Automatic annotation (TrEMBL):
InterPro entries: Glyco_hydro_19_cat, Lysozyme-like_dom_sf
An example molecular function term from Gene Ontology annotations: chitinase activity
Keyword Transmembrane: yes
Full protein name: Glycoside hydrolase family 19 catalytic domain-containing protein
CDD domains in the record: chitinase_GH19
Membrane-spanning ranges: 12-30
The Glycoside hydrolase family 19 catalytic domain, residue ranges: 67-89
UniProt xrefs under Pfam families: Glyco_hydro_19 (PF00182)
């Protein structure tokens, strides 16, 4: 397994890292809840951190007709799936929750579009 990791193309790391940086920047722009509960991340569902608008900004081409999985990666299905795993993005500090969610979304982005030469917004977008 470790050998596979080291044989991955450099584009894998570049795409995932670029998506991670973009998502972190978008998180810092969105309005975060205030107060002590927000600082600890108490009682905030994943949907309060990833809004429908942010989800669609991160996955611009998920519903393109050229996409074989059109209508598969929907915001509704993401939120529904996140509720199936109660610990996903709902525990620890707010910063750690955001990192966990962004890492997951970066993986989805990489597996669905990133790294291809013919990707709609360039190979590493």
């Amino acid at each position: 397994m470790a050998l596979l990791f080291f044989n991955l193309p450099s584009s894998f790391f570049l795409v995932s890292f670029a998506f991670f940086c973009i998502a972190i920047n978008l998180f810092s722009i969105t309005n975060a809840p205030s107060g002590a509960k927000a600082a600890r991340g108490d009682c905030l569902p994943v949907s309060s951190l990833i809004t429908k608008q942010l989800f669609h900004t991160l996955f611009l081409h998920k519903d393109d007709t050229a996409c074989p999985a059109k209508d598969f990666y929907t915001y509704r299905s993401f939120i529904k799936a996140s509720k199936s795993f109660p610990g996903f993005g709902t525990t620890v500090s707010l910063t750690m929750r955001k990192r966990e969610i962004v890492a997951f979304l970066a993986q989805i982005s990489h597996e669905t579009i990133g790294g291809r030469r013919t990707a709609p917004d360039r190979p590493y977008a």
